[in-house]
């Protein structure tokens, strides 16, 4: 069986995304894991390679059937209507937001057509994305709307740990009302299915508490007793090794000490503060529940580093390794 075909989108051209892609595709090991190609601006990729004095060559392709997937010679598919070039380094620009979005759109369309098995997105600016007229909270919401996918979620990879959250980009005041037994159980099941997809069939999942000290038996809140613990028992009945709820302030310490494979948090910052302390430049963010697996970096566009040649591709590498592993576990359609 041939390795999966993975699309790498260039991200926001005014940020570090194209540089990360060039540096990653200079690694021959990538081609042993997947058949990669770039969706982006050929001239931008060539400019970055020249700045980095990279030996990579780039060739434009009109259709994926023209791709060669050859180390050292990168196939670049340029979406129709892509704004040319890039804005000044580090600038937030609507055209660059549009460029990043068009690359995502093209990758997902190829995925829906069965031509691509996974997509890895270099970082984009949400502000530029919104300036371009895309009224979505983030990339996942946009891709979910594009594909009419309902059961999508974000997962994070930090070293050997996977993380996910029951709620994501919502106001803090709305969190408690969404921590219900069915929603917590659904999140546990999604995370367990993702872990099985990367070969962890007997994964241990630590589940966070919502309130300080786990609610202190109901004195500081009753969500643990009324919603979270029953959901964990439901998961056990389904054969999923979920445990908790554990107080959030010691959750990751306990998970590491006791050999957990994953941590289910209840809201965005509960997961992401720990993730970014542990591995901002080596972790990855996974978008699951879409027609194909997608991933992006655990960091943003790093506008302050753009155009300097100092960006490190570790997080993009982790994202690609993860998507390649998930895609390889499914029979290729292309």
Q: If you had to describe this structure to a student in words, what would you say it looks like?
A:
Helix content is 38%, strand content 18%. It is α/β, with parallel strands linked by helices and 334 residues long. It folds into two domains: 5-152 and 289-328, 3-Layer(aba) Sandwich (Isopropylmalate Dehydrogenase), CATH 3.40.718.10; 160-273, 3-Layer(aba) Sandwich (Isopropylmalate Dehydrogenase), CATH 3.40.718.10. A twelve-stranded mixed β-sheet has the order 3-4-2-1-5-12-11-6-7-10-8-9, sandwiched between helices. Strand 11 (284-288) and strand 12 (293-297) form a beta hairpin. The termini are close together. The model has no long low-confidence stretch (mean pLDDT 92).
Give the overall silhouette: elongated
CATH secondary-structure class of the largest domain: Alpha Beta
| Full CATH superfamily name of the largest domain | Isopropylmalate Dehydrogenase
- Alpha-carbon distance between the two ends: 11 Å
Q: In percent, how much strand structure appears in the residues?
A: 15-25%
Brief summary of the model shown:
This protein is an alpha/beta fold. It is built from twelve helices and twelve strands.
């Amino acid at each position: 069986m041939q390795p999966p075909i993975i699309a790498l989108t260039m991200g926001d051209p005014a940020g570090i995304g194209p540089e990360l892609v060039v540096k990653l595709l200079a690694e021959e090991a990538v081609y042993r894991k997947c058949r990669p190609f770039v969706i982006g601006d050929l001239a931008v990729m060539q400019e970055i390679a020249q700045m980095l004095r990279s030996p990579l060559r780039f060739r434009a392709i009109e259709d994926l059937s023209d791709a060669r997937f050859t180390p050292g010679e990168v196939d670049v598919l340029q979406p129709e209507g892509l704004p040319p070039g890039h804005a000044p380094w580090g600038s937030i620009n609507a055209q660059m937001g549009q460029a990043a979005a068009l690359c995502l759109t093209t990758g997902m369309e190829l995925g829906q057509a069965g031509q691509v098995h996974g997509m890895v997105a270099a970082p984009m600016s949400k502000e530029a994305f919104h300036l371009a007229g895309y009224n979505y909270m983030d990339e996942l919401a946009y891709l979910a709307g594009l594909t009419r996918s309902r059961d999508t979620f974000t997962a994070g990879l930090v070293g050997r740990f996977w993380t996910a959250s029951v709620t994501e980009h919502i106001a803090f005041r709305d969190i408690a009302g969404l921590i219900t037994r069915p929603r917590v159980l659904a999140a546990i099941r999604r995370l367990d299915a993702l872990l099985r997809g990367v070969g962890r069939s007997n994964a241990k999942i630590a589940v966070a508490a919502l309130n300080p000290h786990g609610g202190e038996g109901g004195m500081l809140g009753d969500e643990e007793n009324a919603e979270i613990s029953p959901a964990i028992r439901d998961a056990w009945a389904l054969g999923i090794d979920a445990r908790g709820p554990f107080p959030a302030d010691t959750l990751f310490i306990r998970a590491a000490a006791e050999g957990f494979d994953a941590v289910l948090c209840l809201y965005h910052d509960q997961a992401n503060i720990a993730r970014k302390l542990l591995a901002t430049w080596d972790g990855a963010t996974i978008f699951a529940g879409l027609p194909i697996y997608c991933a992006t970096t655990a960091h943003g566009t790093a506008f302050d580093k753009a155009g300097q040649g100092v960006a490190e591709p570790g997080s993009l590498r982790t994202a690609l390794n993860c998507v390649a592993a998930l895609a390889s576990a499914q029979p290729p359609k292309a």
